[in-house]
Design a protein that fits this description.
Elements: E1 10-15, E2 22-27, E3 32-35, H1 38-43, E4 46-50, E5 55-57, E6 64-67, E7 76-79, E8 87-88, E9 97-100, E10 114-117, H2 122-129
Parallel strand pairs: 3-10
Antiparallel strand pairs: 1-2, 2-5, 3-4, 4-9, 6-7, 8-9
The chain binds zinc ion.
């Protein structure tokens, strides 16, 4: 009976560069996706999708502003001061929060499993994900 290999949920904090946007998230750091779509490629966003009850915004929501394009379902929120994208509402999971793993503190990204996501062929990749 070893539970050592099972991922454990912990609380992590993260935020934007200037500190205007801070959040807390409960996650086991599994299922991180690296999407190759037009916007994620340029941002370098690493997706960690969590349920809203596992996410808490610690700072004033007014620090965020929103960019939308194409279907408008995804709400690309970002810090209006420093321009970082610490989290947003993804088109694939509009009821969830998509945290940028690069904006989490105290994690070793190199030690985590990061799965490529074919966002260039969005409809197909969505089906593959189930
Ligand atoms: Zn900022």
């Amino acid at each position: 009976m070893s539970r050592e290999d099972e991922p454990v949920e912990k609380i992590y904090e993260g935020g934007c560069h200037c500190g205007g946007v801070r959040f807390r998230v409960m996650t086991d750091l599994t299922g991180i996706l690296d999407c190759n779509c037009s916007i994620c490629t340029k941002k370098g966003f690493l997706h960690l999708i969590v349920a809203p009850e596992k996410f808490e915004l610690l700072t004033d929501p007014e620090a965020l502003t929103t960019y939308t394009f194409n279907t408008g379902v995804a709400k690309h929120t970002f810090c209006r001061t420093c321009g970082m994208h610490p989290f947003y509402t993804p088109r694939s999971h509009p009821d969830m929060v998509d945290v940028n793993a690069r904006c989490l503190e105290g994690i070793d990204l190199a030690g985590l499993t990061i799965t490529p996501y074919d966002g260039q062929d969005w409809e197909k990749a969505r089906e593959d994900l189930g």
